[in-house]
Amino acid sequence: MERRPRSFYVLATFFGLFLLFLYGPTITIAILSFQGPGGGLTFPMRGMSFYWFSDLFEQQAVGDIWGSFRRSFALGLMVMMTTVVVSVMAGLAFRQRFPGADLLFYLIITSLVIPSILISLGVGLMFSQSGLDVHWSTSGFGSQLTWTLPFGILIMFAVFNRFEKSYEEAARDLGASNWQTVRYVVLPIIAPSLIGVALFGFTLSYDEFARTLLTAGSYNTLPLEIYGMTTNVTTPVLYALGTLTTGFSFLIIGAFLGIAWRSNRRRARAGSDAGKGLI
Predict the structure, then answer these.
(1) What is the pLDDT of residues 107-140, one digit of tens each?
(2) What integer is the mean pLDDT of 80-99?
(3) What does the pLDDT look like over 55-80, one tens digit per residue?
(4) C-alpha–C-alpha distance, residues 37 and 46, integer Å
(5) What CATH code would you report for 64-221?
(6) Of 85, 145, 162, 229, which has the fewest CB atoms closer than 10 Å, so is most exposed?
(7) C-alpha–C-alpha distance, residues 38 and 45, integer Å
């Protein structure tokens, strides 16, 4: 049996420590959320129960947990759909050179290097000075797009740089219009990437704090609500909320991965059927 080199064990140890650093706090919060009714915010644990999870569904003396969750979920869907549509349109547009393309590209990605709190301050100030309502569905929506759109557009640039144009040329040779080529050729091929952009858009919006801090108005999103609860909630109900939101995030990721898997399987089956038809 071949002996593994020492570097393998060093890298394995480093990777294990990295995973512990990455997921250790989340696991600790999950464990503490299962404390009994007399539990506190630190170890040692005082019993084991689902008490604090059931307490989440009771009338809360402070905060608006479920209202903030609905707002974050709705905002995430809005940002996700907008990010997907605009990213695809930008990817298609930048396939052809046009005047000012480089300047426009750098303007798009500049928002990634500007501190998020300054983006939030600027968008909130712009809305208030213009006489517009500072609200999570308007100014909050706009500020979050400055975060999700650059990622979506960069992904689409990478996708279209590898896209084989001969598929589009073949569709046009068969009489397809530009719209039909995009609808029946381009979009099905890049569908897995679109699912990735959608996942990016939703998750980045769902847990965004800094860019929403000064643009959400009077109604908090879930990250803002959780931050507010850390100043006045001293029971493990806060940990129970964190555990549920983490589980919801993994559920969303699993759903998107399931959609991507089904899409790839359908494409493989269609390609197999087409190959059999040529035999």
Answers:
(1) 888 888 899 999 999 999 999 999 899 999 999 9
(2) 92
(3) 887 765 556 888 899 999 999 999 99
(4) 8
(5) 1.10.3720.10
(6) 162
(7) 9
The encoded tokens of residue 214 equal 């000064």
Is the pLDDT score of 274 beyond 60? Answer: no
Dist. CA 14–CA 269, nearest whole Å: 41
Contacts 24+ apart (CB under 8 A), 72-77: 72/205, 72/206, 72/221, 72/222, 72/223, 73/206, 74/137, 75/136, 75/137, 75/140, 75/141, 75/144, 75/205, 75/206, 75/221, 76/201, 76/202, 76/203, 76/205, 76/206, 77/202
d(CA 167, CA 159): 14
Q: What is the CA radius of gyration of the chain?
A: 24
Domain ranges of the chain: 31-52+235-264, 64-221
- What is the reported pTM? 0.84
Alpha carbons 28 and 43: distance in angstroms, whole number? 10
